[in-house]
Amino acid sequence: MSDRIANAQLRDKVMSAEEAAQFVNHGDKVGMSGFTGAGYPKAMPGVIAAKAKDAHGNGQDYSIDLFTGASTAPECDGVLAEADALRYRMPYQSDPQMRGKINEGAMKFQDIHLSHSGMMVEQGFFGELDVAIVEAVRITEDGNIVPSSSVGNSVEFLNAAKKIIIEVNSWQSEELEGMHDIWLVPSLPNRIPVPISKAGDRIGTTYIEIDPSKVVAVVETDAPDRNAPFKAPDEVSEQIAGHFLDFLESEVQAGRLAYDGYVMQSGVGNVPNAVMAGLMNSKFENIQAYTEVIQDGMVDLIDAGKMTVASATSFSLSPEYAEKMNNEASRYRDSIILRPQSISNHPEVIRRTGLIASNGMIEADIYGNANSTHINGSRLMNALGGSGDFTRNAYISSFISPSEAKGGAISAIVPFVSHVDHTEHDAMVFVTEYGVADLRGLAPRDRVAKMISIAHPSYRPLLEEYVERAAKSKFQQTPHDLRHAFDFHIRSLETGTMKAEG
Amino acid sequence: MSDRIANAQLRDKVMSAEEAAQFVNHGDKVGMSGFTGAGYPKAMPGVIAAKAKDAHGNGQDYSIDLFTGASTAPECDGVLAEADALRYRMPYQSDPQMRGKINEGAMKFQDIHLSHSGMMVEQGFFGELDVAIVEAVRITEDGNIVPSSSVGNSVEFLNAAKKIIIEVNSWQSEELEGMHDIWLVPSLPNRIPVPISKAGDRIGTTYIEIDPSKVVAVVETDAPDRNAPFKAPDEVSEQIAGHFLDFLESEVQAGRLAYDGYVMQSGVGNVPNAVMAGLMNSKFENIQAYTEVIQDGMVDLIDAGKMTVASATSFSLSPEYAEKMNNEASRYRDSIILRPQSISNHPEVIRRTGLIASNGMIEADIYGNANSTHINGSRLMNALGGSGDFTRNAYISSFISPSEAKGGAISAIVPFVSHVDHTEHDAMVFVTEYGVADLRGLAPRDRVAKMISIAHPSYRPLLEEYVERAAKSKFQQTPHDLRHAFDFHIRSLETGTMKAEG
């Protein structure tokens, strides 16, 4: 048995995942660790999926409601969705199997701000949580949990659940211990300020305290996280990143940002990678990240002495960087902090840090409303994630996206977004490969030209055409022609492209 | 000269409003006190409007950009709009003249979260502020300002402006002194937690400290606030209020609320009035309000010993209650606190108090997105106000509205809202006279039946018809038929009613 289970009482609970599956029953509400493919349980999802398939094969019902931190992996969200083992899922997903099941109507998905999700569990909005299944690096002598490569909503789940199953994963480095900072706002009516003023402030413990009497099983695993290979930025991504970096420079010139005052929040993807590469050779120094996930580029910035600290709730590394982190975690313990997502994404801390938010999107409209989640209004892509937490409370919020997708069939700028995740009141700056639309201080009508200027040229005439129609509205605060507001999307649904015929 | 101007240096600056108008020039950015018809300058807007008219009469340009706390009054927003004296206005308005000018395109309006508006001025997002015009109860010996019946964004404006004009209004009771609690979060990079844990915590000064050398004029006035007469709740409002109170009771039954744990945020209007009347005879005790405006009903609850404290940024009283407050302000100094709106509406404090938010709306859709601002997508009604600040950070957020308006021509529940101010991720509970739609924990498709159940019966078949069409979508996360999503609104624009013919 692994010497990572230092508590005698919990050593007695070690069993196989198959045995532990007895504790997860039809109709249960189950909270799992896991955030962007890091720190999710590796064994239990598979055996729960098998249990569901067995039940269904015998004509019995079996499904659970699954709560996590964010996305997990094929061997978690993927196998559970494929087995039709889920009735309901929140707050984020990005799995192809699961996306398919959601969009065909086979399971329900609720898209919740990541900063709200654990809090809502604590507040009892979902009723009682039956089981928490949490991956650990090790179990301490006192029976507490040292989390692995993410924290997510694990603390809330472990507090709320009637039963606890711990997966101790020996693939995860024991050196991660000391990197976590576990602190939750006390429950109502005793909430107090989160005592974090700077991204690097540590306020809690390096482990999650649990009630060991709730632990029904400890399962040993040795399996890697889902770490997606790093993709080198393409030309469009580099152009967008260039515009974003120019925007940062222009904020310095305007006296609204200091070269040593950049607090970064960044979504994941090609453009953020290119931004971080660009920062390596920029005038920005002492960069801090207060964000959701630690990416390869942040590790590089730390190594180069350009970034002093990165605070997040999870790693989201390439396999190469994950291995490096596993080997050298102790070296990064001063500069990387993993917090509960209720803290990494907490509105109050985000606002306090004065961070500049930068997130991807599916589409934005001519007035600056943004859609992060749905294709053509109905089809779920991934989900909202923390984009709302950061956008709403950032010093400056920005959205970055190529101006078109699917080989030009989809425009990122449309007359009316088919789903609103971030309103015109929240989004400030949009960036595509054609430049920056800075909407700060602008009434709706003054935003239109800026948004069209960053649209792909092939879509500008169609957008202008819509603006001309809309200008005939009797009401000029936010001129629209609702008869044609969704023409781009309807064309896309009917013909496969947002482009007009002829 | 009034003995309310206790500072000798500033006594030398006393002049008429007409004389002070020399300091407000074409193209200026002007910040004024004022929030929901309380505490706005009474004299300067009129003379600025006259100056604009004179200039226009002489063929000259004259317009300013106007920033306030929220709405003001006919003698402020009204006269300025009527004189075409405004190029740009933020963050809220509710004036008929101004609404008309905005919707006809004669001026620009930007609708900004009230908690963000002062902060954005401080952050320099609008460039330099030229003039701050602020109403005071009195000027202290040290040259500081005791604000009057609202605080709004006055502190940010006074800090940011190059020139200051103070209106000392002897209509406002000197007894208001001591009721204000003036504290701002220090500027970046020195932001710290707001040290408020409970609605009643006092953390600042009772006056606004200013740089007296920036004061260019002091103007004496004696004029009442715009205080709208109290309207007794009608039958529909009482039904809605009854459902809302039942909902609070059900939260107690579910263990999610205590009878002495209700922290109230409330919009203004008939339904809130009815809710507060209902609370008088309820089991709820020691109610606290952490809200934007102090309303008649809160004063009644305080008088009855049902409410321990009400924290806001402004009064919004009937003339009768305003007179009472002016006469007995000292009696309410322990139970009423007026704060800067950046604090009354601060995300971090809202979340910390665990308040239950309750705001009006124009329409909501079958998936729980809410529109607070626009008729048929284009026509501005009032603005967002603090509804987003509270909805996003509340313990429970609710929207209350009659199920129909304009004698049945408008349904409050529609297939797709024509403007999104609060997304499906933010709004939790909707209440009409037909009941409560509690959307917590529900995926989009599970929300539809709940939302239709609170629609007016005459609109339910049309909504069902849309749902049937939408159900044919290939994608089932949020089924829509974008060809017909705005049919309700298009009918309304074309025929004057959302009802179908025949």
TrEMBL record, chains A, B:
- One Pfam assignment: AcetylCoA_hyd_C
Q: Which GO terms describe its biological process?
A: acetate metabolic process; acetyl-CoA metabolic process
Acetyl-CoA hydrolase/transferase N-terminal domain: which residues?
8-220
List the molecular function annotations (GO) for this entry: acetate CoA-transferase activity; acetyl-CoA hydrolase activity
Keywords, A to Z, come to:
Hydrolase, Transferase
Positions binding CoA in this chain are: G267, V268, G269, N270, V271, I362, N382, G386, K406
UniProt xrefs under SUPFAM superfamilies: NagB/RpiA/CoA transferase-like
Acetyl-CoA hydrolase/transferase C-terminal domain location: 333-466
InterPro entries of this UniProt entry?
AcetylCoA_hyd_C (IPR026888), AcetylCoA_hyd_C_sf (IPR038460), ActCoA_hydro (IPR046433), ActCoA_hydro_N (IPR003702), NagB/RpiA_transferase-like (IPR037171), Succinate_CoA_transferase (IPR017821)
Active site per UniProt: E292 (5-glutamyl coenzyme a thioester intermediate)
Query: Key word RNA-binding present in the record?
Result: no
Domain of life (superkingdom): Bacteria
Cite the PANTHER family for this sequence: ACETYL-COA HYDROLASE
Tell me the protein family, please. Belongs to the acetyl-CoA hydrolase/transferase family.
> What is the protein's name according to its record?
Acetyl-CoA hydrolase/transferase family protein
Q: Give the organism, scientific name.
A: Corynebacterium qintianiae
